[in-house]
Model the fold of this input.
Amino acid sequence: MTLDATRPVALVTGASAGIGKAAARMLVAKGWQVIGTGRDPARSSAAIAEIEDAADNGGSFTMLRGDFDSMAQVKRLAGEVKALAPRLDVLVNNAGGVRDRLIATEEGTEATFAANHLAPFLLTRELLPLLRGSAPSRVIAVSSSAHRHSQGFNFDDLQSLGTGHAVAGYCQAKLANILFTRELARREAANGVIAQAMHPGVVDSNFASHGDQAMKQHMAAADTVSPDEPAETIVWLATSDEGGRDGGRYFHRLAEEVPGDAARDDAAAARLWDESEKLLASLGF
Done:
């Protein structure tokens, strides 16, 4: 089975719940062919039914399963996408989250860093030929205002192992999302691949379900928004003229914002790319 080469295709990671599910639902309602990824079997099955029910104007949805803690699974997913999709107009790197502690994966990475930065980096790299062949195409990163808590990327501790705290690692990984977006935009502008980043806000979702007690209490007390609100910004970035020009920008609520100083460091963005490649190569990717 392959998708229709005459109709637009989007890949939305983390489409089994929250922002990703809402964005996938909105895109299929606009007639897009959407490929989603999900980790949890029950949530993935429920999401398929909800998203397919929203499909209109020839829209369709396909769910692929994979865990973004694992680079081997990310590589496999990329291969499945390439086999399924003759084109890729939009990649939404949405999957991620925060943990209650630092966790070493079977591959030897730290789980928060792996899921939030290394996985989207690898997935995007693997799918770049498809994105270039579908140009003009777009890559959208779901970052966070948490990046503002990082004064600068710590290249002496790429995965934040020395911090002893998963939330600090999450903040650095969200900074990495924006730095990666800026460097991707610089490298791929001539190939017609436009990269943008966005901040979703404090969202009523399962984001903190694996976080520590302080994070869960913070989210429970916060003034949250529905996943539909950030999903609208994602879909706008995926489909509007504004989202398709001048890559490397940062958005919130359908408008451009200026990210923190550390997120505008282009030398750090270039170095992060190189360090990410070195780490992946050391893992066999």
